[in-house]
Amino acid sequence: MISTTECRVLFRPDAAELRFLPEGPYSLPDGGFSWVGIQHGASSKVGSVNVMNLAALTNASFELPGRPGFAFPTTKPGAFVCGVERQLGLFDVDAGTWTVLCDGVDSNVDNTIINDGVVYEGSLIFGCKDLEFQTNKAGLYLYRGSDHKLIQLRNDQICSNGKAVTRGIDDGLHLVDIDSPSKSITIASLDIGAGVLGDPNVIVDLSSEQMFPDGMIVTPDGQSLIVAMYDPADPAYGVARQYGLATGELEAVWTCPGSPRVTCPQLVMIDGSVQLVLTTAVEHMAAEQQARHPNAGCLFAGLTTFDSIGEQPLFDAGS
Predict the structure, then answer these.
(1) What is the Cα Rg of the chain in Å?
(2) 74 burial type by CB count under 10 A (0-12 exposed, 13-18 middle, 19+ buried)
């Protein structure tokens, strides 16, 4: 039987710019979690790293020098590795400094910027998005930790979103990937040392639905995926879904009342239990639609049966 859990509003950002497009929650070593404001409004060219204090339920926001696709905590306290516009860099929230690690991402095409990614064993795998959401030209990249080399794995995505790295029964690595407009979740073999990605196979086909798969994580046991579903329509609630990795079958659902555009999931320890944190967005909502969805742009939390938050590694920022 498929379980359904209704989530509660965990945090409602006061500022409209922070409700526009929240994404990327990620557990922090101090017990809180971070998240990103992808873009501070439809015409904005900046976004932010945000740090959530769960004990006080307060949020600290730090503006970035552009629009981020992701921000992950690092081994250096207060520093986040971020994909901003077409750069990878380290942002120090205390000093407000931006240190470029890699420039010119997706420089062979026009009008794309970095979007979602994942940290795996000292490396980053991330994708880009076409800002017009029309053309299969955005890149998928490996930033290899062993030699700090940027390697393009694909050049044919539109809006690269959820990522997860899993280890198969053959002990080989696989990349589970979402290019949202395709309405599918794919899996492909991944060789980080060689910098090679195999041909993708579809494991979840959502082409018959109005919703789009967005952010994604793998469950702590490595057997399932939790996927945020971005719904451009007008339902009473948004959803995140859990799918079996081997079967592609739906296993569980979490709902977000009054907020249909669910963007990203993450498991976070809250009040002594592992809960699912879901970010949601106001993006593309007219004023009257926002009135119908009063919780749009809020961060939600829902109960789970997991006993750990799984692997959420820190990116190695060096000395």
Answers:
(1) 18
(2) buried
* Rounded Cα gap, residues 261 and 283, in angstroms: 8
Could you read off the pLDDT of 54-78 as tens digits, one per residue?
999 999 999 999 999 999 999 999 9
pLDDT digits (tens, 9 = 90+) for 170-200: 779 999 999 999 999 999 999 999 999 999 9
Write the single-letter amino acid at 295: N
**CA 77 – CA 226 distance, rounded (Å):** 28
User: What residue spans define the domains of the chain?
Assistant: 3-303
CA dist 139 and 159 (Å) reads 9
Looking from the CA of 120 toward its CB, the CA atoms found within 13 Å total 23
Cβ atoms 141, 127 nearer than 8 A: yes
Q: How many CB atoms lie within 10 A of CB 275?
A: 24
Which of 3.40.50.410, 2.120.10.30, 3.30.70.1450, 3.30.1330.200 is the CATH number of 3-303?
A: 2.120.10.30
